[in-house]
Amino acid sequence: MTDQAGREVSADACLRAAQGRVAAGEAALLLAHVLDRSRSWLYAHGEAPVPERDLARFEQLVARRAAGEPVAYLLGTRGFWRFDLAVTPDTLIPRPETELLVELALARIPEQAAARVADLGTGSGAIALAVAGERPQAQVVAVDLSLEALDVARGNAATLGIGNVEFRSGDWLAPLSGERFDLIASNPPYIAEGDVHLAQGDLRFEPRGALASGTDGLDAIRTIVAAAPAHLHDGGWLLVEHGWEQGAAVRALFAGAGFVDVATERDLEQRDRVTLGRHRLSR
Question: Environment class of residue 195 by beta-carbon count within 10 Å: exposed (0-12), middle (13-18) or buried (19+)?
Fold first, then answer.
């Protein structure tokens, strides 16, 4: 590919042309994706010419990112736990802070136990696949209301070769009628419907139903906490991710539903992130 002066366009020139429109690191990610190369290769081969078709694809991606589309959707993947997961606009983009939920769940599932685990609102399958991958003896049921999201999650399971996950369509615990589990985990929507952040940044492009839930953001969590005891074995755990200002309110919901050993764990930024509790043991 040559520019208007007849000169070849190099990788470095592509990145310079993107300056001011998108962040430098994002431009490098997009160009490496288009060229099917690593970023380290890109930096080591900055003078490599960029084929015309790849230059056109790169320009399209830069324009879409400049318009606000999340990098994860442009790349079609997002790293989570030890995986690269396919993501689409039908799924929430997995966040690093959700790895805390996975860590807390794994700490409560013995390595060789044939535990039954449910992941509610699985989206791309991030939580279910992380737990199932680390606990191959466990049987994990991943639930989502979105058929499109479940298709993405199933594809991720197939790509990763994780076979101990069953995917079901439905609203929260409805597909689990008559079943009990050793642990239920969920990263439900927890943003208030009127929150201004929903109209900002990446959130503008993510599925609204996976982000917002009622006037205070707690409607989905209320539903999950109220219904979970009927689906937990005695001593079974419920773990729910939530917003950093919602810890006290979620702990109150857990206590009101009869959970014991209720606590809220903080993320790396020392913000309330996950509340957990055990279903009351039989007396």
Answer: middle
DSSP state of 141: E
| Same domain? 113 vs 56 | no
Task: Give 222's DSSP letter.
Answer: H
Q: What is the pTM of this model?
A: 0.91
Beta bridge partners of 117: 140, 183
Contact partners, residue 247, CB within 8 Å, separation at least 6: 264, 272, 275
46: in domain:
yes
Q: Residue 156 is which amino acid?
A: N
CATH number at residue 127: 3.40.50.150
Look up the domain containing 22 and give its range: 11-67
pLDDT digits (tens, 9 = 90+) for 160-189: 999 999 999 999 999 999 999 999 999 999
- pLDDT tens-place string over residues 221-273: 999 999 999 999 999 999 999 999 999 999 999 999 999 999 999 999 999 99
Reported confidence tier of residue 43, pLDDT bands at 50, 70, 90: confident
CA distance 199 to 221: 22
> Is the domain of 257 the same as that of 192?
yes
Contacts of 88 (CB under 8 A, 6+ apart): 73, 76, 148, 152
- Residue among 24, 21, 78, 30 at smallest CA distance from 57: 30
